[in-house]
User: What shape does this take?
Amino acid sequence: MAKEEMEKQGYSGIERMLFFVTPLLFTVVLVMVLFVVFNPSLRERLIDAGRGVPVVGALLPGDASEPEGSAVLKEQDDKRLASLQAELSAAKAKLEAADSEKSGLEAQVKSLQEQIDGLIKTSDAEKLSAEQYQGKIAELAGMFASMTASKAAPILENMTLEESILVLGSMDSRAQGAILAKMDPKRAAQTAARMKDSEPVKDQQIAALQSRLRLEATSTETASAILNQEQLTKTFESMNAAQAAPLLLQMADMSASKVLRILSSVSDATRSSLVAEMSKTDKKMTSQLVSKLMAGK
Assistant: This one.
């Protein structure tokens, strides 16, 4: 007993403090551990704080929610990328459709431009031929104007009324009056009455040709027929082939022999133009006429 009491007397103050403090610290640490274990929110906060410590952070586990969040973000990015790719494909398809439509429109514009150019060329050619025909009429009118009225009047009287109107219409009023004064009064009155009605030059030309064709169809005298044939040949040679071809085809329905005489009497160049224009309108009739024309030669 004496020995134990001597040992008790031998404890220092620090030893006595540790004797009481150690159980207390153990209890506090145990309580904190249990509190952390059973409190997830506090545990997460303590782990997050521990990750900030260099050495301790390496020993602590990583954030379990991070992979799940990354997976969600990746899925969202994939969906957005797929949506953008779909929009890009749709835009490319629209662009290709627009390019195709543009190419089609360019082809149509090119075709229309070619048609317009062709029509312009055709119109220019017809205009040139009409001007050439009008030039021949003016030249013929000048020839009659240079003659004496007493000589020009009988020649004009032997022409059809429409032909004489066409020629007189290209003269000045002084020459017209002088020639009409020398013509038969009845014929002069008819001519003057028709001349006062202003008609387009092209209509007058067509009327003159039609009158010549009617005269050729109804003429019975040989001498008159020869004269009309020569005049008709000159008329067709001076006409535009595009205008003469339909008339010849109409004549062929009534009298193919007269058309053959006209084709055989004109020049080779005129005949070639007439046959080309006639074949555009009626190939069958034209081939029959050409065959008969070759057989006649």
